[in-house]
C-alpha cells in the first residue's frame, strides 16, 4: 500500500484525505461516495478488530511512531497510509491523534433483524439511548458478558459513531447489531423468534433482577431505556415482564450502561 508523508498544509488538499477533513459523524454516515456511508476507528487495537471482522479500510492516518505497526497490520491491503507531524494531522482532523492512528472504512449494510435473531439466546434492545459513550459501553458489556446481538431503535445514537466505537473497544464491529422497526413491529418480531421481552424499569409491577434471572426463559430480549427518562410508555406496554435492580442508600437507579452490565451478567 502507498505510504504518503505529509509535509505542509498544501499536502492536505489530497482528495484521499477527504474522509478525515473535520467531518462530523453525521456527514460521514451519509457520505454519497460510499453505498452505506463511512465510519472512523481509532487505535491499532480497534483497527485490528475491524479488519478481523471483515471491514475494508479506505485510508489511514498514522503518527510517525505508529507507522510501522500500521503497515504491518494492513499487510497487503491497498489502503493508503498518510503520516506527518502531529500538529499537521490535527489541523486536518480537528483533533489530536492520541491513539496513534485513525482509519476510515466503508459502513456495511445492516442485517435484517429477523436474520440477526435467528440462533440468538440473549439480545439487548437499546431504546433511544442518545449518548454514544453509553452505547459503546453497552456494546462492550454485551460482547464481554454474553449477549448474542444488539438491536437499536430508530432514535438511538449510531453505534458506528467514532466515540461509540472507541468506548466499545471495537466490539461494535464484532457483535451483530441492526436497527429495529418501531414498537408496532418490534414485539411481533421478537416474540415470533421465541423471545420474552424483559424491560429494565422502575415500575410498581417490576420484579427483582435475581428473581427474574432464576426463572428466565431460554431466550430473553433485555430492553434498556434512554438516559434520564428511561423507557417509553410504548416499550413498557410491549414488555412481557418488568425487571428492576434493587438499590441501596436512597439511590434510585444506575447509569444505563452500568445497569446493562449488571443485568446481562445476571442473565448470562
Calculate the mean pLDDT score and round it: 93
Q: What Rg do the Cα atoms give?
A: 21 Å
Strands ordered across the widest β-sheet: 8-7-6-11-9-12-10
CATH topology tier name of the largest domain: Alpha/beta knot
CATH architecture of the largest domain: 3-Layer(aba) Sandwich
Provide the domain count. 2
Order of helices and strands: EHEHEHEHEHEHEHEHEEHEHEH
Number of strands: 12
- Would you tell me the structural class of the helices and strands? alpha/beta
Name the helicity range.
25-40%
Alpha plus pi helix count? 11
CATH-assigned homologous superfamily of the largest domain: SPOUT methyltransferase, trefoil knot domain
Task: Just give the CATH class of the largest domain.
Answer: Alpha Beta
Sheet bearing the most strands, described? 7 strands, parallel
Strand composition percent? 15-25%
Distance between the termini: 43 Å
